[in-house]
Amino acid sequence: MDIVVCVKTNPDLEMVRVKDRVAQTEGVPYKIGDLEKNALEAAVALREAGAAAKVTALCLAEGNRKAAEDIKTALAMGADEAVVVDDPALADPDEAAVAAALAAAVKKIGACDLLLFGEGSSDNYTGQVGARVAELLGLPQIGYARKVEAADGAVRCERSMDDMIETVEAPLPAAVTVVSEINEPRIPGLMQIMKAKSKPLQVWSLADLGLEAPAPVREIVSNLAKEQDRKHIVFEGTAAEQADAFVDALTREGVLGR
Amino acid sequence: MDFRYTTEQEMYRQAIREWLTKNLEPRARAIDEAEAGIPTDITEGMAELGMFGVTIPEEYGGMPLPDEERLIYAMITVHEIARADLSMSTPVYTLLTIGWSYIVNRYGTEELKQELLPAVAAGKAFAGINTTEPGGGSDLAAITTIAPWSEEKQAYIMNGEKAYVSGPKECEKWGPPSGHCTLVKTDPEQSYKGFTFIWVPAHLPGISYTTYKDMGRMGLSTGGWIYKDVELPKKYVLGEEGKGFYVNMDGFNAARVLVAAACLGGAEKGLEISAEYTAQRKTFGKPLGKWEGISFEMVDDWMQLDMLKLNLLRGAWMIGQEHTNPGQFGRKEINKVISTCKCLAPTLCHDIARHGMIYHGAFGYTKDTPLEMLLRGVMSYEVGAEGGLMIMRGIIARDEWGETHNPFKD
To answer: For residue A114, how many other CB atoms are within 10 A of its CB?
Structure first.
């Protein structure tokens, strides 16, 4: 079984500053997203357990000029090969364009029995890409996976739902998007980092994938979070009366007594 | 010319920062207070990521790095550890071990390298430096520990006393092959030419130690050694007999890179703590950071820190280049760059810790901030260790202006 893990690099959120409610990403270094690291760890663990033969990390640069450098972290974490799709026409793509490019790259890679994604990216977290790529490739998709096992031509996952855990199975090839509970991603040591230097890494353009520059289908009206303010309620009376009024207010807000 | 880390160096830096922030930083205060050494699970985790193997070739269990980059990797390692453990315990433990292993690899016999280096790379041995004596450390020519060769025993017979040495308890914890690179007089009649630099395993018969109570870096022991008729076979000689002074000085240059790295790592973190606090803490209606009395002092510290980081990278690079392809730089050139870093970095780190404590007010005087721990820890590098600050100035005066300004010769 061969696994392809779609790995997005995001601006390092710890270094992003916010000005007038807008994230300032200029000059901020990129790094592999947290959930993508979970997906990578899951893939490498499957290979180490003997359930997979090869793990390929696939990254769409999306404006990260150092994507071909940053993806080496995935190789150090245990991926066998890496492919970066880097094209000026994909500097700030919408989810449809990302999915189209990833699907074409997966086809070009060829062998792919299991396609893994993080449930959402660390920056925009639309959570759309895994499902879109699965649809384009005609693969069954399992979301919110907190456990992934593969055997006998099928993938079996535990799905993390709000109040229950669901176990589902799909025939391979299949696409799975994972959540953070699935594992603790390994931190690569220096030996793994140096070994990653000699692992195969290819950089493809849209033309290599037989694609043209995508026409945007998304228009961002606003991606700002709703502004929040305090309610400025002042309780009066004795301490006991204030406490009662406070509990009443919390109950009305639905914070208590649910 | 490229002032950036390579992709692999940067990946390594990020990886160990992630591990150290998660595993070492939350325990730094406990390490300082327990005075019981670096916890074994910490050294094991560090070894797993390759931190103890950066200066050791792969054939001895170390890391597959280009030789000319080994000291840069060591510098990155120590800098990042110092950011995580502001008590300076873990950074000093590590810098001694990987720094003096670098010298053992460069000057040691094949037998010694096989005996020592795999255990160091695995994080299961301590390696240190042992030159200072009760009579002093800066005036190395005056040391009195002797080890003349005995034909009968086929060994150097060592007698004397060393003082203010890091790591006696650590040597006891790990057992053989832990020990120290040690400067002795194999020809007591001679001056500089009588010195030999030699590896002294701490477990040999005739060796005993005492410990001192330090003011800082409490997770690493300091003590004194007493040697009585200790037999040291030839395999332990580092470099050539009679050339110990020069081997020792070469070792000091490598070690001083790492000492400065520890001080700059601590300084960088200390300044970050101050930046965060002065952004949040408001007085008279505005954050402390808006008061130029504070922010300009922070800028002065930042400027020195930035310049020293660059100069240290240059020094580590020069030594790596010279060791792999000799003849590129003269000894004096390297001495000046390294001595500059070793002279200024401890004081800058001290200043940053002290300034930060003052920005924090009474809070800064408590053990709820790690700044007092940094201040206590870094002072060990102001009072001495790998060369006192005045010795660094003396080296620069000598190597820049020659004999008219050489304080070491009348």
So the answer is: 25
